[in-house]
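Q: Give me the 3D complex with iron/sulfur cluster.
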Amino acid sequence: MTGHQTLGPAAATALGQLNERLAAKPAAHLQVSGLSIHYSTLRGPFNAVDNVSFEVAAGTNLGLVGESGCGKSTVVKALMGLLPEMTRVTGQALLDGQNILGLSDADLQDVRWNRISLITQSAMNSLDPVYCIGDQICEAILAHEPVGKTVAWARAEQMFALVGLPAERLREFPHQFSGGMRQRAVIAMALALNAGMLLADEPTTALDPIMQSQIMSRIRGIHDHMRRSMILVTHDIAVVAETCETVVVMYAGKVAESGPTQDVLDRPLHPYTMGLQNAFPRLPVRGQPRKPLISIPGTVPNLLLPPAGCRFAGRCPFATNLCRSVAPPTYQIGAQSAACHYVERASQFRVAAAEPDTWRSMEPSR
Ligand SMILES: Nc1ncnc2c1ncn2[C@@H]1O[C@H](COP(=O)(O)OP(=O)(O)O)[C@@H](O)[C@H]1O
Ligand code: SF4
Ligand SMILES: [Mg+2]
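A: Here is the predicted complex, encoded as C-alpha cells.
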C-alpha cells in the first residue's frame, strides 16, 4: 500500500494505531421514527417529508427509492444536519440510541463524518474548489483523531488506493478531476473515518452508465469489506435489488411501502412500487421475455397543497373515491408494510400493473 514507505517508524506506528482504532468502530444502528420536515417557503410551509419511519440494522444496507422530488435528499440532509435554517423537523432519528436531529453545532461536529458520513449526488457540492483534495480529507481526519498531518495524509493515501485513485493525485484540486474520479474522491472522504453509517445520495446519478456501474460495484465491494451500515438513495429500484437488504419506497414525502428487498420486489404491495418496477426493470431472467419499459404517467403532486386522500391517487390506475378522499393507513403484512387501502388486492394489481394498457388508460377500476 502507498504511504508506508515514506513514513518514519513513529509515524508508521501511529498510522497502524489509527487504522486499528478506526477499524474497531462498530457499524451503526439507525432508528428513524415519525420524521416530518417542513421547509419554510414564501408560499407557506412545504411538507417535504411526512411521518417517515424506518430502521437500518447494524451492518446492513437500506435502499431509499422514489422519483425525483419525493423527499429522499431531504431525509438525508436531516440526518446530516444540513437542512436550511427555518426548516421545521419533528420526530426522531436515533443513531446508536442518540437522537441526531436538532443537535448543537458542537455535537454535530462530533457526529458528522465521524459517525455518519455522506456521499452526495454531486461531488462538486461536497468538495471545496480552493483546497487540494488531500487537504480536505486530512482536515476531516484531524478534526476527529489525535494524529499529525503526516499520518492523516498517509490515511488519505490509503483511502485513495481503496477507491482506485493514485496517491499523487491527492495534491490536485477538484476541477482537475473527471466526474468519475471526483465521485471516487468523495467516496474516499466519506470512508476516511470509517463512520458506522454511510449515506449515499444518488452517488452515481451524474455519471455515464459505464462509470455508474463501476462506482456502484466499488461501493458494494467496500461495503462487503468494511461492513458499514448504509442508506443508499436512488430512483433506480434495480440497483437496490443488487445492493440492499431492506428497501423503503417513498412517494410525495411519505413511505408508500417498505420491507425486505426480496419480498418487496417479488411481491410489491403498493401500486407505486409496481409502477417503479415497470419503469426500472431488473435484468432479464434467462428464458423469460424482456419486460417492456412502462413509465408512470403524471408527476408527483404539489406538496404545498397535498391531495386529501392517497397522495398517489392522481396517478394510480386502481384509485377509487375512497382513495381520493381518505389517506390510507399503513398495513403490515409479514415483514412488509404498505400504505394502500387495497393491500389485500395486491396480487390482482400486480397482474394488471404488468400490462402497459393499465397505465395508459388510467381509468378508475371501479
Ligand atoms: N430548501 C428547500 N426549500 C423548499 N423546498 C425544498 C427545498 N429543498 C427541497 N425542496 C422541495 O422538497 C421536495 C423534496 O425534495 P428532495 O428531498 O430533494 O427530493 P428527492 O431527493 O427525492 O428528489 C421537492 O419538492 C423539493 O422541491
Ligand atoms: S390507496 Fe388507492 S390510490 Fe393509493 S395506491 Fe392504493 S389503490 Fe392506489
Ligand atoms: Mg435527491
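A quick observation: The mean pLDDT is 91.
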